[in-house]
Amino acid sequence: MKTVAVKPMEHRMLAVAVVVGLLLGFGSGCGQETTPEAKQARLIAAESVQLRKQLADCETEKEHIKARYADEIGQREVQLAACQNRIEALEKDFQDGIARQVGSVMAAVMSENARLRREIETLRAEIESVRGPQPSQP
Question: Which of 56, 57, 61 is nearest to 10 (CA)?
Answer without folding.
Answer: 56
